[in-house]
Amino acid sequence: MKHKIDNIVVGAGLAGTWLCYQFIKSSKSFVLIDEMGHSKSSFVAAGIFNPILANRQKISYNADEIYPNLGKKYHEVEHYLHEKFYHHHPVSYILDSLRELNDWAALSESHLFKDFVIMTNERIGDQIISDFGALEIQDSGWIDIPLFLTSFRKKLVEPNHFINENFDYNALEFSDDGLTYKNFEAKNIIFCQGTANDQNPLTANIKLKPAKGEVLIIRSEENVEGIIPQSGVFLLPLGNNLYKVGSNFEWKTLDFQATESAKNEILAKLTKWFKAPFEIVDHQAGIRPSSHDRRPILGRLSAHPSAYIFNGLGSKGAALAPLYSEKLCKYIYDGVELPPEVDVSRFK
Ligand SMILES: Cc1cc2nc3c(=O)[nH]c(=O)nc-3n(C[C@H](O)[C@H](O)[C@H](O)COP(=O)(O)OP(=O)(O)OC[C@H]3O[C@@H](n4cnc5c(N)ncnc54)[C@H](O)[C@@H]3O)c2cc1C
Question: Is the pTM of this model over 0.70?
Answer without folding.
Answer: yes
